[in-house]
């Protein structure tokens, strides 16, 4: 009898465990607000590798900075308020500093009273955890490579003037980390340490501009030198890389111009009072273009040899004589003008001055405009402030304008011998029409200013342009399926990839681009080699193309590839092959990923590990052999791992991300499905399992589409309120399966391509038994919204659909405006995502064949539409047109518009609202839950306010 009881106990224990697992609640929107997670990109590794810090906390609420020792379990935790701010370590890793903002409740209260909040600075001594706090801090900086100093700039007083011309300077505290002594510098507007931390350059902007200037503090002696003083505003301090020279600009009032006139200041040969100073304003100087001046937004800098100052120039607006006279006595003039106008109007209405006649408010659109008027308006401020790169050669006091209205894009090559200029003026109009970009390329000799055309009409769509070698004497480029190099000194060109029996045309790029290139990873640090990828392998090729070395061993056979190189060495110039180099590796077939190493002096990338995870964030401590990276999968949040071995052996987990996940039901995993599209292409789809998945049982499923999605098979989804409403983690937790198929496109058939790929993917997923064929829905946003809107005109396989910001009429959409940039959609259609070319007048069948609106009578699937009234990407009329068409046909459709929102939903209350509504909708359609009133009933405008008040919710209510 006892044996039977024991046996029953053993049989019941696994069942009890399963029941307990099934009893975990699904995630609700309340948990999203409280979801605790590490903020991506917030981590910082100390220079010596002993410590790592990161920010963590809930989606809404107050955050913490965690500082963890990398060699043991020592951990320090600090509350930092509601805002994520940068974290910084001192050079010797003995101190860490970060700002502490106001708490979430304080921020909300301050918004109601319109009162400002101020940050504190927390300075922590490690490992003793001795804390020092500074109040009302604006910014801070450790002294670069010197470990002794911390500079702290304080916020202005609340009652300080805030007008445009008010002084911007505030107190700057120079704090010695070792002695705790501090020194105050008043009215500082900008400050920056040089690379070694031996010098602090700063500018003063005081009330009445009294004592304004640029100053240099010797951090060893404490001696302060005034390098330039004037009744001016000084700004844009910029040290060179070596830290032995810097440049800035200063402004001066000039009655001839509407805005301030600027002067470039270059400081080098630093020796206190004896430092060399160069000033250049350009006005009235030989060779300087009339009507131009130093750009106020320029960041001037020295050439490597400190022979040349580089900066930008732009147009200066002159004051007309009338404006100048008005300024001399504005009050008298305004009164006189008003009286004179009134007198003339009374005596003779025809005598009113032309300036007083109301002007027309209009725009003229001319077919010869290179850019649409809407684009010119959207980019007006950018155009007005456009900085034309220029140079001033100090020795011969010669100015050279490098960029101009035609050659706007100029890049200075390393070492400052040459510059490369790109002039697309002859092709700009056509490029804005059809998206195919070309440019003429010039080589500019910086010593003489001579410009020589080296390429005529280079195809620049995609990866066009030159990649410059660190020595500044070589460049590589792509043309017509092959990579080439060019000796800039001789003009000789060499085919780099001609000897390699592989394709350098990107096989996955299905846009209307001529032979799209695979990536180049750039030059080696010694400028002897170029690292170029085919679709799978990486090649090391000599500058003249004569020697070719494969760095990966024919990985194409297994569809394994080099994905990227991690830049882990500070201030690197190219890939230094005398140091270990690390690469991300990926298998396109299995979706396994990992890290590989190219050891110094070797020619073979060795895979260190590769598995069913996603890896990223790989970095190295600046002054130590300590490495950190993230690892995640679809069920496990990204965690940071540390290793002190070059081969990344024996890694230790540093973090505990998403600590509350174990309390809730979670996806049971993912399956990779292989299938054939209707076009005969071998494709894949990711099928994410619902929480508590039971083999043999089928589940309601959301099909989420965009383009190719399966490469993210092992990526984690953080619960969140997204801008498009859908969050995979929420749906799988609530019992849905989620299907994400890949889509391969045929030119001039984007919609039909989606049908050819998505419908077979759904059928393949149904065949697994996991997907309930009667309860499949589809959702996508933007391009995914277009495909969703189109698919329901071609198939009834879906029980419900939700489309966010969809294109619905490809004919009208083609010639509408992309308001976020002001340009037309034509270029997007013909060379980018639209994949329809040429215009509909010559391609009517393709445009109508792929437009949801032309097949609208076929729709039998209920549709939830999202389209915001300020959508600057997909015109709002696209949603309106589809909604009104469906409504006229009495099809079940609801469109939601968030007023003032753009292409995605930005405001948190709106994001919360739509996320809840979308799930309510799918729960009704796929889970037989009651229909929400906003779906089942019409909405009376007079009752809308009450409805919205009822939805002003704590997400936990849903």
Automatic annotation (TrEMBL):
SUPFAM superfamilies (UniProt xref): alpha/beta-Hydrolases, DPP6 N-terminal domain-like
Residue ranges of domain Peptidase S9 prolyl oligopeptidase catalytic in the record: 759-928
Keywords, in A-Z order: Aminopeptidase, Hydrolase, Protease, Signal
GO MF: aminopeptidase activity; serine-type endopeptidase activity
Any GO BP: proteolysis
Annotated Gene3D superfamilies: alpha/beta hydrolase, TolB, C-terminal domain
Signal peptide stretch: 1-21
The keyword Protease belongs to this UniProt entry's keyword annotation: yes
Transmembrane domains' residue ranges: none
Protein name per the record: Dipeptidyl aminopeptidase/acylaminoacyl peptidase
Organism of provenance: Pedobacter duraquae
């Amino acid at each position: 009898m006892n044996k039977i009881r024991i046996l029953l106990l053993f049989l019941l224990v696994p069942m009890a465990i399963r029941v307990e697992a099934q009893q975990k609640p699904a995630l609700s929107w309340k948990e999203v607000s409280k979801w605790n997670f590490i903020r991506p990109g917030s981590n910082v590794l100390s220079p010596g590798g002993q410590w790592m810090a990161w920010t963590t906390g809930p989606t809404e609420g107050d955050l913490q900075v965690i500082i963890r020792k990398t060699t043991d379990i020592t951990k320090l935790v600090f509350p930092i308020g509601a805002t994520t701010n940068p974290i910084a370590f001192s050079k010797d890793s003995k101190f860490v500093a970060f700002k502490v903002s106001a708490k979430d409740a304080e921020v909300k209260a301050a918004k109601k009273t319109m009162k400002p909040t101020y940050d504190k600075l927390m300075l922590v001594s490690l490992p003793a955890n001795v804390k020092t706090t500074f109040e009302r801090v604006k910014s801070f900086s450790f002294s670069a490579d010197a470990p002794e100093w911390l500079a702290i700039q304080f916020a202005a007083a609340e009652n300080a003037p805030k007008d445009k011309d008010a002084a911007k300077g505030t107190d700057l505290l120079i704090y010695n980390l070792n002695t705790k002594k501090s020194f105050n510098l008043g009215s500082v507007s900008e400050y920056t340490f040089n690379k070694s931390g031996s010098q602090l350059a700063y500018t003063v902007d005081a009330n009445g501009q009294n004592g304004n200037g640029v100053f240099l503090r010797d951090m060893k002696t404490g001696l302060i030198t005034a390098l330039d003083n004037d009744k001016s505003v000084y700004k844009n301090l910029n040290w060179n890389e070596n830290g032995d020279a810097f440049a800035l600009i200063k402004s001066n009032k000039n009655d001839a111009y509407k805005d301030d006139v600027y002067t470039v200041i270059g400081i080098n040969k630093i020796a206190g009072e004896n430092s060399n100073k160069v000033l250049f304003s350009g006005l009235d100087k030989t060779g300087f273009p009339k009507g131009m001046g130093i750009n106020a937004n320029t960041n001037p800098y020295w050439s490597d040899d400190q022979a040349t100052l580089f900066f930008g120039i732009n147009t200066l607006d002159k004051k007309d004589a009338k404006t100048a006279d008005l300024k001399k006595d504005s009050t008298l003039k305004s009164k006189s003008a008003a009286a004179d106008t009134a007198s003339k109007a009374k005596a003779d209405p025809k005598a009113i001055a032309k300036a007083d006649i109301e002007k027309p408010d209009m725009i003229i659109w001319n077919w010869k405009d290179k850019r649409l008027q809407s684009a010119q308006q959207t980019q007006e401020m950018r155009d007005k402030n456009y900085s034309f790169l220029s140079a001033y050669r100090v020795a011969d006091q010669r100015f050279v304008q490098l960029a101009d209205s035609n050659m706007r894009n100029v890049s200075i090559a390393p070492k400052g011998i040459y510059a490369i200029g790109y002039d697309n003026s002859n092709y700009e109009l056509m490029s804005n029409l059809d998206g195919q970009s070309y440019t003429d390329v010039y080589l500019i000799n910086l010593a003489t200013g001579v410009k020589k055309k080296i390429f005529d009409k280079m195809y620049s769509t995609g990866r066009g342009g030159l990649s410059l070698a660190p020595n500044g004497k070589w460049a590589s480029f792509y043309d017509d399926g092959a990579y080439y190099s060019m000796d800039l000194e001789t003009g000789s060109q060499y085919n780099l990839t001609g000897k390699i029996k592989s394709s350098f045309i990107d096989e996955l790029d299905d846009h209307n681009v001529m032979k799209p290139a695979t990536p180049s990873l750039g030059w080696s640090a010694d400028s002897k080699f170029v690292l170029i990828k085919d679709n799978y392998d990486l090649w090391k090729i000599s500058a003249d193309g004569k020697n070719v070395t494969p760095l990966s061993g024919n990985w194409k056979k297994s569809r394994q590839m080099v994905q990227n190189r991690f830049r882990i060495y500070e201030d690197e110039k190219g890939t230094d092959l005398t140091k270990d180099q690390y690469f991300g590796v990926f298998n396109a077939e299995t979706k396994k990923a990992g890290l590989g190493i190219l050891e110094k002096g070797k020619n073979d990338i060795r895979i260190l590990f590769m598995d069913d995870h996603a890896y990223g964030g790989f970095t190295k401590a600046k002054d130590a052999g300590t490495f950190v990276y993230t690892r995640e999968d679809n069920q496990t949040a990204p965690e940071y791992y540390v290793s002190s071995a070059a081969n990344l052996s024996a890694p230790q987990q540093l973090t505990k991300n998403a600590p509350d996940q174990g309390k809730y039901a979670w996806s049971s995993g993912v399956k990779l499905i292989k299938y054939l599209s209707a076009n005969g292409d071998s494709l894949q789809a990711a099928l994410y399992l619902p929480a508590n998945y039971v083999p043999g049982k089928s589940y309601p499923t959301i099909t989420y589409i965009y383009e190719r999605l399966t490469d993210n098979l092992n990526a984690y989804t953080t619960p969140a309120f997204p801008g498009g409403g859908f969050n995979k983690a929420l749906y799988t937790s609530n019992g849905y399966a989620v299907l994400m198929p890949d889509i391969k496109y045929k030119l001039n058939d984007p919609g039909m391509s989606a049908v050819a790929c998505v419908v077979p993917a759904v059928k393949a997923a149904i065949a697994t038994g996991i997907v309930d064929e009667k309860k499949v829905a589809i959702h996508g946003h933007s391009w995914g919204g277009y495909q969703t809107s189109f698919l329901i005109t071609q198939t009834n396989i879906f029980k419900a659909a939700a489309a966010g910001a969809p294109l619905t009429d490809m004919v009208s959409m083609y010639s509408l405006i992309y308001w976020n940039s002001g340009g037309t959609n034509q270029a997007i259609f013909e060379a980018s995502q639209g994949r329809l070319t040429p215009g509909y007048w010559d391609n009517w069948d393709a445009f109508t064949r792929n437009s949801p609106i032309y097949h609208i009578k076929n729709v039998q699937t209920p549709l939830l539409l999202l389209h915001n009234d300020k959508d600057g990407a997909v015109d709002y009329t696209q949603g309106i047109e589809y909604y009104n068409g469906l409504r006229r046909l009495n099809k079940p459709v609801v469109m939601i518009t968030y007023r003032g929102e753009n292409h995605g939903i930005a405001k948190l209350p709106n994001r919360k609202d739509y996320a809840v509504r979308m799930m309510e909708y799918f729960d009704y359609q796929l889970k037989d839950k009651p229909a929400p009133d906003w779906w089942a009933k019409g909405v009376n405008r007079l009752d809308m306010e009450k409805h919205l008040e009822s939805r002003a919710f704590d997400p936990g209510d849903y």
